Amino acid sequence: MITHYWPAPAKLNLFLSIIGRRQDGYHLLQTLIQFINYGDTLIITPTHNGQIRLFTNLHGINQEQNLIIRAAKLLQRHCWTEHNTNKPGADIWLQKILPIGGGLGGASSNAATVLIVLNMEWNCALNFTALAQLGLTIGTDIPIFIYGNAAFAEGIGDKLTPAEPDEKWYLVVVPPISISTSMIFTHPLLRRNSSPRLFNKLYNIPFYNDCEPIVRKIFPIVEQHLSWLLEYGPARLTGTGACIFAEFDTEVAARYVLSKAPTWIKGFVAQGVNVSPLHRTLLIRGYLS
């Protein structure tokens, strides 16, 4: 069996509007999502023993609740019956650099990479649409990572229209906290009544995140970091946080601002990309044409 290193890139919500809430509690969104050339790395070795093993422990996350394990087992159940003695397995290692609870989509990206890679390695022969539908059952952000194109997302994040925002450079600032998505989405003061707009109109107004006021109010450390970054230009929250970002025309400009950061601020510079680094890797290795 061949072992490969596979990227699991981060994403940014360039804007995020909440236009309603379904009876099942899921929120209806309009958001523009772009990947960045920065993220986790997965090392995946297919096996013949039927076991799904993750050799990397993440603090505070039970292995069975980890989306990596859940995604692999979901695909395994979908493609093989429970009592099939010949079903394949996988040994997986995670090189984690994305912050947990940062709004960068790390867990969903990890799950999408696992679904795509094991679908190939196990010869499941599912197309991206089938994989996205499967992934949606365990995470609403997973489909966009499966399809691998920047997109205008609607519904609960599952209705995707391909988009090509400018591939800017971003300074992403990482406050030292983890924010639960469910906590923000269940907050009684969260704005849920933004007016739905056509994508071309949303794209031409100042970008905004409806989750940002609540996050800034609940977490003073996010407010602190955002206030610093706003001194250098427009900045906003990604997803439900905690990470915030500002965009620049050049890498030099982004790195210059990062060099001005006080010691209590940590962050990184990455370029926005409209094709996922995972899909670029698949293309280079001949898995996509």
Care to describe what's here?
With 289 residues, this protein is α+β, with helices and mostly antiparallel strands. It has one domain (1-289): Ribosomal Protein S5, domain 2, CATH 3.30.230.10. The protein has 10 helices and 10 strands. Strands 1, 2, 3, 4, 5, 6, 7, 8, 9 and 10 form a 10-stranded mixed sheet that branches. Strand 3 (52-54), helix 1 (67-79) and strand 4 form a beta-alpha-beta unit.
List the helices and strands and how they pair.
Elements: E1 4-21, E2 27-47, E3 52-54, H1 67-79, E4 89-95, H2 106-121, H3 128-136, H4 142-147, E5 151-155, E6 159-162, E7 169-173, H5 181-185, H6 199-202, H7 212-218, H8 220-230, E8 235-237, E9 244-248, H9 251-259, E10 267-273, H10 277-284
Parallel strand pairs: 3-4
Antiparallel strand pairs: 1-2, 2-4, 2-5, 2-10, 5-6, 7-9, 7-10, 8-9
- N-to-C CA distance: 23 Å
- Mean of residue pLDDT? 95
Number of helical segments with 4 or more residues? 10
Coarse shape: globular
Q: What is the domain tally?
A: 1
Residue windows where pLDDT falls under 50 for at least 5 positions:
none
Derived structural class: alpha+beta
Sequence of secondary-structure elements: EEEHEHHHEEEHHHHEEHEH
> Helicity range of the residues?
25-40%
CATH architecture call = 2-Layer Sandwich
Q: Beta-strand percentage?
A: 25-35%
Number of strands: 10
Largest sheet: 10 strands, mixed
What radius of gyration results from the CA coordinates? 19 Å
Look up the CATH topology: Ribosomal Protein S5, domain 2
CATH class identity: Alpha Beta
